[in-house]
Amino acid sequence: MSSVKDTMKHASIYSTAAMLGKMVSFLMLPFYAHILRDNGYAVIGMLDAGMALLVSMLAYGVRGANVRLYHDQDDPERKKQVISTGVTIIIVVSVVMVLPLMLLAKPIAGLLLDNSNFSRLLIMALIAFAFDMGGQGASSWLLIQSQSVKFAAINLMRLLVGLGLNIWLILFNGMGLDGYFISAMSISILANSILMYFAYRDCGRKFVPDIARQHRDFIMPLIPGNLVSFASRQAERYLVKFQIDLASVGILEMGYKFPILIAQFVTTPFMQSWNTRRFEIAKEPEANQRIGEMFTYYLFLVTFVGLVMAVIIKPVLVILTPVEFHFAYRIAQIEVITLILNGVYFHLTFGLFYAKHTGTLAKIRGWTSAIKVGMAWIFISMWGISGAAWSAAIIGALSVLLGFHFGQKQFQIKMEWKKIILICGTALGVFFILSRWNVSGSGAYEMIDKQWLPAINNVVSDSPLGAWKEGKLPVLLAERSGPVAEAAVNGFLAALFGLMAPVVHDGTRKRIVNLINGK
């Protein structure tokens, strides 16, 4: 059980770090929405899609290769050389990819954004990408060493610097999209330079050719599948743009804005802690059972967070965004399912990573992604932007089934099926009830709407925020007190799902029993 406790401890720290690193976007979202509007969000979404193409060629395999190859080595010096070689490879490849794209920034911006003057935004995004890739490789060293506190400290610095830059550039100087990308580029350079410093300081700068070949052999089979996966996932933005219009891309992007927090705050932190640990224990006698138990813990946690988000997302969008974004709640609810499935995929394909069968992973990604492109085209034609989200969810489910089937052949995970069915069934039941219940007739809603929120609004009115844009914020809070109360009540009721923890988590159940028995 010590591995479970260690994993959960470090995962909680990594989750806190992710929250700190991404809180800038959340805190600034109301300001982004009202200042940048749907067209501004569309520009951000289209450039994000372009960067995702480059990420699909590098990032998905870099950290995994470092972790897997590190645990293959017996010599401590060779272990460090895996990291130094991996970081050097990713830096060099990133620079080689970015430089020609920067030279062609004007025509690329014209193609992606219908405006070649946005080339400056593309150049800043490319610089941020190059540093992000170096940081991806370097951060694997902190993850392997379980230096979660140091990782969190870097993200705290990222939060403070990023928030300050966004407020100064966008709110006070009115720089709009330029301010957004200048801020993103600056904090990427700062945070990832620190990560690369730690990796090179501790592991040296030695580049070992035979280790480089091992990196190549691990990563290269993943690239074709990742590229097709990118095409299927990101192509939906282009399909929406050409089948509907550019503003609809902004609405789609808003729908994806909140669910991605599931990956950032749950899946990624959990895997940052668990990924290296599962390779360490894979040869132990009870590894199959322990890895299965950890999957159950993960599924419960990610379902809990996804359920709360799914029932509050509609009022949250009404609270934070202009009316053109309100329909995005439907996109967000579907995307919650997709992101849960994506996290499940990372767990259930462990056998393929363990056996280094990255070619099989690439084939799964490639075939399912090719199917998704056609499915997205048909679904968007039938159901508009909701069709794009549904195609992703269906393909996510198919990928999980295929990955689990082939992964089990390489490493048999002992699944806790009764607990898994209980988690999924209960979550679906709670969502079905809360999504159809008119919360405005409850006493809790009346108390929050009529008593608590007016008191909070008085406090805000007397603060510096009350003077922003001639008192716009207090007016918005007063006008949208109903959605705030709805989000609070639904969120609280969905959070009661957490009471299932003793049923699915043996450690929690034992602690409760001991507490009852006075032990």
**Percent of residues in β-strands:** under 5%
Mean pLDDT: 81
Q: What number of structural domains do the residues give? A: 2
Largest sheet: none
Topology as a string of helices (H) and strands (E): HHHHHHHHHHHHHHHHHHHHH
Which oligomerization state do the chains in this entry correspond to?
single chain
In helices, the fraction of residues equals: over 70%
Stretches where pLDDT is under 50 for at least 5 consecutive residues are none
What's the total helix number?
Answer: 21
Structural class: mainly alpha
Q: How many β-strands, per DSSP? A: 0
Gross morphology is: globular
Nearest-angstrom radius of gyration? 23 Å
- N-to-C span: 19 Å
What does it look like?
With 519 residues, the chain is mostly helical. It folds into 2 domains: 1-220, no CATH class; 226-436, no CATH class. 85% of the residues lie in helices and 0% in strands. The chain is built from 21 helices and no strands. The chain has helices spanning 2-70, 76-103, 105-113, 119-144, 148-172, 176-203, 209-219, 222-243, 246-257, 260-281, 287-320, 328-348, 350-354, 358-383, 385-410, 417-436, 443-461, 472-479, 481-495, 501-504, 506-516. Helix 2 runs antiparallel to helix 4. The longest helix has 69 residues, at 2-70. The mean pLDDT is 81.
In short:
This protein is mainly alpha-helical. It has two domains: 1-220, no CATH class; 226-436, no CATH class. Helix content is 85%, strand content 0%.
Label this structure with key terms:
519 residues; mainly alpha; 21 helices
